Amino acid sequence: MPPTQPTIGVFDSGFGGLTVLRALLQLLPGANYIYLGDTARLPYGSKSHETIARYAVSSAKFLREQGAELLVVACNTATALALKDIQHALPIPVIGVVEPGAHAAHSASNHDQARDKVVVIPSEPQSNSSTNHVLVLATAATVQSHAYTRALNTLGLDAHEKACPLLVPLVEEGWINHPVTDEVLKIYLTEALNEAPKAQTLLLGCTHYPLLEPAIRRALTALNHPLTIIDSAEATAQTVLTHLGLPAHSSKLKAPGSQCTFYATDSIEKFERLGSAFLGQSLTGVRHVDLGG
Ligand code: DGL
Predict the structure, then answer these.
(1) Which atom of ligand 1 is nearest to 16's Cα?
(2) pLDDT value at position 127?
(3) Global pTM?
């Protein structure tokens, strides 16, 4: 891989992975990025393992064909169910979001003073006797895979996973600050906290949920149960930095003229409109690609 300006493929089932790209752009502004949103086949989160693996591998192969030298699977569902399939299918490093998110939760649990958001570089599990309980919100497929529970248990943390299938469609609809979304969040969080009353940390295990963070905070305040919220996007970007041998929190990749190329498998207009909210800046020039069914 060229040390100064690697080409990084970023893959998600849709727009949500743009939150990971946003974090990457902040830490690695000098890299080139090729982003694929598999919007025609979204949502992945309600589909079977076999289907998710097939979609994810074909998306990953497409990015490799476009020149990706390292692949970031920004989709939690694709990471949870198909990371190994993708790693077997591609001759390049493949980084998912589950382990970085779990490591970030582990580091947060080691902070005496819980901060609003804690982002850390993955490290070796520490041999402490932490009893931190982590509540993971994710899609149904991610929860059924128990990938987060395995990753968190390995680090000595207890986990409780809660499927929140209504949240992705609400975000896709742009209902980020909407009374219906507030109500749905209150119901999910009430159920989750009844099931996991000791939870101290909330891990957002889906690409779409960081956009709901203000609404999640409002709901937690209303329920009088504040939690440290972990968003794996920044932790994943830190993992990429570490993989490239760059120091944490600061990028030495300052090469000018980094390029971002965007592909979507469904409507370009919708991708540009919704994607801008996820990326945090206006998004144009999206190209269409047909990856089949
Ligand atoms: N990208 C998916 C995830 O992070 C959410 C959307 C979907 O279900 O495809 O789990």
Answers:
(1) 1
(2) 39
(3) 0.90
